[in-house]
Give the backbone structure.
Amino acid sequence: MSSLTDIKVGTVVKVNGDPFLVTKNQFMRKDAGKPVMRTKLKNLKTGNTLDKTFLAGESFEFADIERRKCQYLYKDSSEANFMDNESFEQFSLPLAGIEDLMEFLKEDTEVHVTFYEGAPIGVQPPIKITLEITETTPGVKGDTATGGTKQATVETGAVILVPLFIKEGDKVLINTETGEYVSRITD
């Protein structure tokens, strides 16, 4: 039987048949009462969050999830298509749940896909990715050292803020979690 202390940040528990990632936990013991574990959970299928308190002695089970390295192939109007790097099996995920993650992915990018009960449910792109600037306004001479920013479009179509010295054709490193410019890549 699992105990409350097994519920840690990063573990995945089943709640009503769905996998939930523990994002926060706090162990509490009231004066003479039973200990409890207060948690904040994120549904790995829908992305919704849930506050749940587990009581001592309450039964719960951990979800059987698996993360695999996969390759992003392409997307169409409603789905993103991937290939498992080991089995070469191709599968797709609906864009509705992963649109924000896809804005920095270009074809052939390696990603981690989360599987629950054998079915893909989520994608984790690389934390940092290199993309080429396809459109931006030219910097004005003398403005390159002021620390200002301007908008730029990268090869995937995403729009980011970059320093004024960045020009079309430059390659930049982008943090995919925040969508922010990290640095210019020089060859």
